Amino acid sequence: AAFSDCENESVCLAAALGIVTGYDDGTFRPYQSITRQETAAMLDRLYTSLGGKASAANDKPYADDAQLSDLARSSVYAMREIGIM
Hints:
Layout: H1 9-16, H2 36-49, H3 70-81
Helix pairs in contact: 2-3
């Protein structure tokens, strides 16, 4: 299994495709709510894997921009750029 706490076939496939990465401790935490930035990161990886290209322009920063992780910031703005978020 891709994660120590989840053997769901769809989750394992998404992990194999690089769409979901889980947490540093090897868990997926399937019953934990996900954040906007985690959602954006997954959607961005999916969009990119399907051949999509989106810029991460943040000429209009979100009010909570400072709270976004460095890893997810570009994904949040890229998904806004293509109209998903």
